[in-house]
Each structure stands twice: as structure tokens, then as C-alpha cells.
Amino acid sequence: MTAWNPLVKEKVLISSHPEKIMGYVYTSLAYLLWGFLALYWNSLNTVSSIEILAHRILWGFIFVVTIMIIHSKKRLAFFTLLKEFKVNIKQFFYIFIASLAISSNWLIFIWAVNFGHIMEASLGLYITPIVSMILGAFILKDKIQTGTLISMLIAFLGVTVLTYDYGKIPWIAISLAITSGIYGLVKKYIKVDALIGMCIETMMVTPFALLILVLLQRSNKMFFGSDIHLSILLIGAGILTVLPLLWFTEGAKRMTLTTIGFFQYITPTITFLLGICFFGNSITLSQWFSFGFIWLSLAVFSLSSWKGKTKRWEKT
Fold it and tell me: What is the mean pLDDT of residues 136-157?
């Protein structure tokens, strides 16, 4: 019997029909929850974005550690990885960069929702796949197909239209896309098991979260503890941070990357609709044109990916 290696990601499960269905369910749940989280952050709009982020990190870490305690096999692998820190120092560096990128992404999104910039946040979520493709092409040297290149150019045109309409660069959208893109890129270099990696990610930024909470407490600006309802919501923020990540991991083990690509647009679409129907954001004609270009680029990208997959099937 071979020892379980914490540096080897879990294998993709056999693609039987029941497993595929479970993959669809897990992935759908993850992206649906990510989409509707905007409502959750809005319910905390009286709390500063930085405090929400701190609680999201702290309680997320506590939730992951609880899962690790229950899962003895992964708990053992986690401590094994820590003991071999010098050997795996490059992995720890990648995880640290990933933790900074995703924490920045969370802070920007929460701030955008609570300060009425949800439409720009939605745009950022839409262009994230385009940024990921650009990073993949330039850094990972991924081959870009003609259809993918066309979709990138159309998306760039959409961002240009929005920039012209704003009269300034849509930094919220671009920042969200870049931080998410960097997180996805660094994840390509991380070979640690998903749950263990998530535990280390949150553990690395938890000291910063605790420092933020201490400073807020000393300046009498911390909301946690002042209201039972808000306190429960802040604790729940950590759980709602970890759950979709775990669901996504389970879904990814049962689905191809191309199939996952179709699901990733659930979140920005929900955010976009919430911006119109719930948050009452008005959309100018230029913004409609901008989103129109983004949707067209996604259609071109999806069609290109589907055709590429079909050709590979025909060859085999």
C-alpha cells in the first residue's frame, strides 16, 4: 500500500453518467452561490469592506481546519507537508501569492457591491476568462486558436467602449479580472491537494486578518459583537467562502475543463441581473453595447472551444 502524497492532486473520477451528473450539480451549486453572494455582502453594507474580508478569512480558516480535523488522512498529509517546508518552499511561495491574489479579489468585489459598482464588478467577472487566456498565452505559452483570438479582441472592444463611456479606466472590472486571473494562473503551479492548499492559503493570511480586527477593535470601529445578527452573518461569511470552493473542486474532478468553461458565466450573469433587478442600477446605451460585445466574445469563445473539442473527438 503506497503512502498518500499531499503534493499530488486528487485524480479525476471515472466519467460515468452518475459521476457526470454529480459534477454538474457540484459545479452549478458553486457558481450559483458565488453569483448570489452579492446579496449576502449587501446585507452587511453597514460593515466596512476590510472587516468583512478579515472575518471571511478568519472564519474560513476555522471552517477548513474543522474539516481537516475530521478528515484524518488529509490532516496527516497537511502536517507532513509542513515538516517538509524546505523541500516544498516553492509550493508555499505559490500558495502565498495565490492567497494574496484571492484576498485582493474578495476585497474589491465586496467594496464594489457595497458602494454601488455591481455592474462594473459583473463586467470584471465576465472578462476574467479573457484575462486568463492572455496570461496562459504569454506565461504558460498556451496555444491560442483563431476563434479564441477573435473572442479576446471582441472583449477588448467591449472594455474600450465602457472606458469611453466612463471617461476613465474601469479599474474595478480590470482589477477583479486581473486578481482572479493571477489566482487561476498560480493555481496551475500548485500541486498540493485542494483542501490542504485551501487550508494553507487561509492560514497564511489569517495573521493579517487578526491584525485588522485588533486595529478595528482598538479604534472602536469593529461591528462584530455589537449586533448578534451581524455577528452571525460575519461568521457565515467564512463558511460561504469555503463551501463553493469545495463544491467546485468536487465538480472539477468529474468534468472536463471545456465543460466547466460553460458554467463559469453563471456567476457574472446572476450579478448582472441582480444589478438591474435588485440593486436598481441603470444601464446606459454604451454599457449595453459594452456587455453586448462581452457576450458576443463569450459566444465566439464557447463555439470555438466546442468545435475544437469535436475535432479532437473525430481524430480519436
Answer: 78
Domain ranges within the chain, ordered by starting residue: 17-315
Residue 68 near residue 199 (C-beta atoms within 8 A) = yes
* pLDDT score at 261: 61
pTM above 0.90, yes or no: no
- SS3 string, the chain, reads CCCCCCCCCCCCCCCCHHHHHHHHHHHHHHHHHHHHHHHHHHCCCCCCHHHHHHHHHHHHHHHHHHHHHHCHHHHHHHHHHHHCCCCCHHHHHHHHHHHHHHHHHHHHHHHHHHCCCHHHHHHHHHHHHHHHHHHHHHCCCCCCCHHHHHHHHHHHHHHHHHHHHHCCCCHHHHHHHHHHHHHHHHHCCCCCCHHHHHHHHHHHHHHHHHHHHHHHHHCCCCCCCCCHHHHHHHHHHHHHHHHHHHHHHHHHCCCCHHHHHHHCCHHHHHHHHHHHHCCCCCCCHHHHHHHHHHHHHHHHHHHHHHHHHHHHHHHC
What percentage of the chain reaches a pLDDT higher than 90?
27
* Residue 184 pLDDT class (50, 70, 90 cuts): confident
